[in-house]
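RECORD CONTENTS
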Amino acid sequence: MISRLAGDSTWSRYSLAWSGIQAVVMMALESVILYIHILESNSIDDVIPSAKYLLSQRTTNITSTEVDAEATTLLQSTRVLSVYHVLFIVAQLFQLILLCDAMLNKNTIQIIAIVIFNCSMVAYTGVQVKQASDILAKTPTDSLVNMILIRFENAAAPTPVHASLPYEIAVVCLMVIFASGFAYIAYKLYKEFGWSIYKKIGADLSMRDMYKVYQIFIMILKFDVFFQLGFSAQFLSVVVLEASPDMWSVLTIHLILSTGASIILPLIAWWGLKRESKISMWCFIVCALGTLIYNIYKLCQVSFLESDRFAGAQKFLKLFLVVDLILGILTIYLAWTCMRNFNNGLNAHIGKVSGSNIYPMESVGGSSKRWSIE
């Protein structure tokens, strides 16, 4: 399997080994962090009733409604942070799968995207430390978080240290090393793959441009799936935690739309590209526009319409939605561009690059027995 993906390229083998080690090490460490965070979350759940009672005994201007709202926000933050840990674990598998696919298709653009994706994970590891600290951060005035700190006997500490902090720091340091190392390997692969594709496709600039758009579109589709599912996991965790009367209707509608956007639409696009079917591509573009409108509505809902409902998860919900919107606009534009390139011989050249024939060989020129792939 490795020889099929890497071929005779030493740097391809290095990249697969490096990415595989990164996935194993980061998933193991993040699993430990997730386990510790779940234990702390359960402790917070147990402490909240007594903390609310202690707060009610103090002479403050805080109403019971404000206390309940603060409790909901705190619970949202702890539960959704668990989802972020799971997403980080999935992201490690995702980057490894992307790399295997890039090796198979000699996709330099996708390798560059993995470098950027790794850099974004480095940024998240830093945010992760602050998120976990903020959940137990001491506030200057009376609050529910302050009461929880009293129950944890950490009232004297301005910023109590959570148990997973050493592992989180290790994740930050290791991700910087892995991301930097992969960036260097990606540079070497870029030079190798660029020459390989040039030899197979040739010097036809128009064909190379069409192939580049095709590669970018396929890559963006994969990131669409990851970020759309990432938003869905966070959104549904908040809805389930809230347990509102309309929970099941919201869950059902969102699951149907999310499944369509994350699974069915990419399959329609893939089929349309392989068969150069304009009908399939038009179906994809129309449905993608519908998904774009739905994500705009969700962004308004999280930011303005029901901001209190999503207070504990608002920042990352908005981040994922903004990324989904950017990717959605790019996807629609690239789908339209790819559709315009249909019937110009691109599929035959894709077959040369991948080593497989997209179309069967057809006779060329009257009674001649010469065969060609065109």
User: Anything to note?
Assistant: Residues 203-361 form one domain. The chain has a mean pLDDT of 76. The chain has two domains: 1-201, 203-361.
